[in-house]
Every structure is written in structure tokens, then in C-alpha cells.
Amino acid sequence: MFKYIVKRLLISIVILIGVSLIVYTLVRMMPMNYVQTKYAGQIANGSVQQEDIDRFLDLYGLNDSIIVGYLKWLGGLVTGNLGNSFKYRAPVGQVIADNMWISFAIALVATILQFLISIPLGITSATHQYSVRDYTVTVFTMIGLSFPTFFFAAIVIRIFGVQLGWLPVSGLVDTSVDYAMTFSGQMTKFGDMLIHLIMPIGVSVILSIGGLMRYTRTNTLEVLNADYIRTARAKGLSEHTVIYKHAFRNTLIPLATLMAGILPGLFGGMMITEEVFAIDGIGRLAYKALVEGDIPFVMGYNMFLAVLTIIGTLLSDIMYAIVDPRVKLTK
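Above: the chain's sequence. Below: its structure in C-alpha cell form.
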């Protein structure tokens, strides 16, 4: 396994370089660069002249060719320097570290709820195949899979935030309230934050349970047709024991592959959800940086996600080998 891990890590370096080159090229090929976006109004009314634009382009390194600019960025990366964000005027690593934790908290709660809801739904759907329960769960999950995030979030905001007025529609806390720096004041702030996060987390969970539920249902149906399940039933074991002691354990084995997507999802933020609900997590910051052509931050953020994806994939392979001894990591 050690040789396998070392080989995968070496291959990952090549993959990261390829990913970084593609991302950098795409960002540099955007119709508008950071200078043109930031000074669009001044350029339109003539208060910023061409020589000023050229000076700004030189300042931000946007006059360099794509290859030269990429090599400069790569040289900084090798020395551990991701550069300074154009938009946020701070080191990219610091901006990511300071803002990813709220995204992590939201994604962690949403992921836990997703598993707690999806797996039981998938199992009950499989054990009652072609029943009313199965069709009901399938329709519900397919609706969740079909809705775009921004569309479903807008519906939720309109119903529960605007029409009913039950929940706040944006932000993390009520900005009109000055919370005291006492224990009771901070607990009040924490409670307000929880209320603000009900809709974002709810939208994320509802839209994500469909895929995992269908995945669990398919795996459970395959396991229920296995010979050892028929043997267990022939021995007179109760259906509950057959399902949750024998079938359930083997159903979880393929779910280990989901580790590859969980890790970047936890730390990378939910870009659309955070933007719709105006939550300043890492996903929303990345969206704003991308729109304005903030190359250092876009590059740092995407490399952060790429590294997490590679680590998640490696952990997924290792976990799969652990839960299923038949799998050997030899290539």
C-alpha cells in the first residue's frame, strides 16, 4: 500500500500542474480582466486614460503573456506563495483560511443530514420495491435532483422568508442587532446564526439527498439478491436482522467511494447557495473573485479544491480496501 500511495502522490503532482495550467489559461482568456472590471466606470467617462490602464496592467502582471504569467505564478507556488488577492488585498492563503470555516460548518451539517436521511430512504425504497413507498420516495428525490439550486432557493426564500416571514433571507446574523460581548450575548448571536442557516442548509440537503438515495437503493437491491442473503433468510432470521445486520454492512462498502467528493465539498463551500443567501463563505468569495478576474485568488482556490479532491480520492481508495479485503491496492 505504501508504494501505491507514493505512486499516486507523484501522479497527483502532474495532475495538479495540468489543472493549474488549464485554470490559469481560462481565467486569462476571460473577456474582461481585473483592471477593466474594477475601473469600468472611470474608463467609460474618460477619467482613466490608457497610460493609467497600462500602468495598472503592469502592476497586476496582466500585461504578461499567458505562459509568462503562469510561470511566474508557478514559481511563487513552488516557494509556498499563492500571491495576494487583487480584490481582497490580502494573501490568498490567509483569505481562504479565514473564510472557509463557515462554509465547512454549513457543509458538515448538511452532509451529516444528507447521510442520515438518504441512506434510510434508500434502504426502505429498496426493501419495498415497486410499492407506493418506493414510488413516493423516488418522485420526491427526482424533484430534488431536477431543481437548480438558485431556482429552488428562490422558491424557499419567497415562501418562508417573504410570504410567511418565518426565517431571515440572507446573511449570518441580524446586522441591526448589537450583540454584547458576554456569554448570554454571544449565545443569542449563535442562536440567531442557527436561524439564519436553516434555509441554506435545508436547500442544500433537499437538493443533495436524491443522488445518494438512488445510489443506496441500487446497492441495496444488488445485495438483497445475493446468495448469502437468501441463506440468512433460509436460516429463519428476522427480516430486520437480514436487512440491517447482513445487507446494510455490505451496502455501505460502495459508499466509501463517496469520500472522494465529500472532502472538497466540506471545505470548498457551496458557491451558488452562499451567493443566493448572501453568506460570506469561501464559495461566495470565490464567485466574486471569478467575476472580477482576481487571478491569484481564483488560482489559489482552485488549487485548494484540486488538492482536496486528490486527497479525497486517495482516502476513498484506501477506505475501500479497508472495508473490502478483496480489494488490493497494487497498481
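The chain has a mean pLDDT of 81.
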